[in-house]
Write a structure and sequence with these properties.
Helix content: 40-55%
Low-confidence stretches: none
Bound molecules: adenosine-5'-triphosphate, magnesium ion
Radius of gyration: 18 Å
CATH class of one domain: Alpha Beta
Strand content: 15-25%
CATH architecture of one domain: 3-Layer(aba) Sandwich
Shape: globular
Mean pLDDT: 93
């Protein structure tokens, strides 16, 4: 089981969009995938896709009471192979609870083995701010994906914030815990700006950093991501063919390439997700 978190020390960078689309694409490719919504303030991942079987509980039950009973905390979405732990921390209490608990930052990492036999991939969406919660999620992950807008000021600010967070976690590294690599994906790349130059500069900012790398694949700014979100369907199902009036690739090729870059161990499975295959899945609408 691979645990991937989607993190950023800033809000609105595309974390939920990335979590939802990577998750649904992986599920459509046959991986048993679990989405965890850890954004108590804007729990948008919890309602991103229709839920066909709603569990009573969610993240609060898992983290506050250590409840790992699947029937109580895991909901089924309308997408086959895609399950969800909703964010039900309505009063934003988890953060204080975790700050006070002696095992606070390790709690999620300690609970994850309960999911091991049932899922191939877990994707955790987070709130865009530096907090004990974010550190807890990073400590539980094998890889941290970080969407970043193509903007120099944001990139520098991000660099500082993320490095401070990673520095803060080094103490846990000394205790034998692994700190995951951070993989930046440039999101909302605009066709009209000098996209390539901005991308290269972002790369330069991080080139000497061993813990942070910039992925080759990027996500262009495209209406399809917004329409997919409002319709509650994965972008790769909504647009599996490249529209004839557009230069940029289809949502399917964008998400497929991202999935391959982040999880190279599943490359063959992802490459098998051709236009024809996805067309069938989309038509069956399961
Ligand atoms: N590549 C993209 N192209 C077009 N729109 C995008 C893209 N990525 C994200 N968006 C839009 O930008 C907005 C913010 O994205 P999203 O909610 O995924 O960010 P977030 O990092 O989860 O935000 P928050 O920190 O508030 O949780 C949404 O309206 C989303 O549809
Ligand atoms: Mg979000």
């Amino acid at each position: 089981m691979i645990i991937a978190s989607v993190v950023s020390t800033k809000g609105g960078t595309g974390k939920t969009t990335t979590s939802a689309n990577l998750g649904a694409f992986s599920a459509d490719s046959g991986l048993r995938t679990l989405l965890i919504d850890l954004d108590p303030v804007q729990p948008s991942l919890s309602s991103y896709y229709p839920i066909i079987e709603e569990a009573q509980g969610g993240i609060y039950d898992l983290l506050a009471f250590n409840i790992t009973d699947f029937t109580r905390i895991i909901s089924a979405t309308s997408i086959a192979n895609l399950s969800l732990v909703i964010s039900n921390d309505i009063n934003n209490q988890l953060i204080n609870l975790l700050l006070q608990a002696p095992d606070g930052r390790l709690r999620l990492a300690n609970l994850m083995p309960a999911f091991e036999d049932h899922f191939d991939l877990v994707i955790i969406d987070t709130q865009g701010a530096r907090s004990a919660m974010l550190e807890m999620v990073v400590l539980a992950s094998d890889v941290a994906i970080s969407p970043l807008p193509p903007n120099m000021l944001t990139a520098r600010e991000f660099s500082r914030g993320t490095m401070q967070m990673l520095d803060g976690l080094k103490a846990y590294g000394r205790l034998g815990l692994k700190i995951p690599p951070v993989k930046i994906v440039v999101n909302c790349l605009d066709q009209t700006t000098d996209a390539q130059m901005i991308f290269e500069t972002v790369r330069e900012i991080f080139q000497d950093n061993q813990d942070i790398s910039v992925l080759d694949s990027t996500i262009p700014a495209a209406v399809v991501f917004r329409s997919a979100a409002s319709q509650g369907i994965p972008a790769h199902r909504l647009e599996y063919r490249q529209p004839s009036n557009r230069q940029s690739p289809s949502a399917l090729s964008i998400i497929r390439q991202l999935a391959i870059d982040v999880f190279p161990q599943w490359r063959d499975r992802f490459e098998a997700m051709t236009e024809e295959k996805v067309a069938q899945i989309a038509k069956a609408g399961r």
